[in-house]
Write a structure and sequence with these properties.
437 residues, alpha/beta, Urease, subunit C, domain 1, TIM Barrel, 2 domains, ten-stranded mixed beta sheet, 20 strands, globular, binds (4S)-2,6-dioxohexahydropyrimidine-4-carboxylic acid, binds zinc ion
Amino acid sequence: MTDFTGGDPEAATPAYLIRGVRVVGAEPTDLLLSGGVVAQTGRGLDARGARVVDGDGLVALPGLVDLHTHLREPGREDAETVESGSRAAALGGYTAVCAMANTSPVADTAGVVEQVWRLGREAGLVDVQPIGAVTVGLAGERLAELGAMAESAARVRIFSDDGHCVADPRLMRRALEYVKAFDGVIAQHAEEPRLTEGAQMHEGEVSTRLGLTGWPAVAEEAIIARDVLLAEHVGSRLHVCHLSTAGSVEVLRHAKKRGVRVTAEVTPHHLLLTDERAVSYDPVFKVNPPLRTAADVSALREALVEGIIDIVATDHAPHALEDKECEWAYARPGMLGLETALSVLLDVLGQRWDLIAERMSRTPARIAGLSEHGRDPAPGVPANLTLVDPAARRTIDPGEQASRSRNTPYAGLTLPGRIVATFLRGEPTVLDGKAVK
Ligand code: DOR
Ligand code: ZN
């Protein structure tokens, strides 16, 4: 597939010529990547010493951008590190990920966000943009050093207590007010904690049948309703993490009609799987928010196509074996997502390339303020892109994941699409489907 003849292996940043690739599904063209950017496009470009990649049958997308990744470093390097998570991301077609703050210690100071940012640079596989915590220690009591994190080398713009909800409305208001000064965003894990005490799965017919305590849809919807009103009142930006119910879509639709500055994400697993999976009692299907009903899944799909839901974010949540291979009640919530997200979306949406580019790259890059990302390959644009083979199908094997963890909910499932190559600023992080370093 990759032809290195003519390439100069000694060159500092060798040029790459991708031959005959369909950019966002359009007619085949060549892409010459050089000096970190797309230097030239067009048919029949001269290779002139560049390494040649055969793009026949492949689709080029702007490198995917994940707004919601748990990298677990510092603190749980047994489950994932910045490096292993970055590799998983690159293999999934990502060129940038936003690292959630629920690490240990929590990313609630300039020091910790700078550490994560630096580890990301050292790994050099994707751009790692740290998310800062909203409250000290995710405890929901005092605002963290939002300004110091914004001014740090990591230039934090998104703040989230993800894993926990900022339940106190006064704190939520203050946080929205604070970040307005630098056009920051508060990303809320919408879960009214009093309504989900002891919850094990979605509250509904299946939870009743299994006798498990339910997590009602209204616990999510009530917080989103409150927060869009607060965001409107303050005139600040709100982002809703992992929206999971049909009712949440309706709240969001209403808020958007009113012009509230709100964006929302949905995960691949909430677009594909339902609460029926809990019948197996396999904790790989335990996640927060929980898998919902088939009616919710179809409402989420429609909202994603329509644009009421702005983006797909993975909520990649690696967990060590002992935290997953135990009884359902004791298992940690969360599932892997980076290496399978695009395949799940191809399964759900089909080959709607422009829609996929919009929801998985352009819009998340815009929300995160990552101006080098989310741009379709064109002359002068930073060469952050991924090449997909849409005709390939693959059966998901947890043992083959680059993540340090194994908790993929898609084990044994055959899904469409394969990432053939990913380029970060013109340098390959993945070639022939394999990580380069
Ligand atoms: O399932 C989840 N896992 N939901 C969250 O909000 C947090 C995440 C984690 O950190 O494992
Ligand atoms: Zn969350």
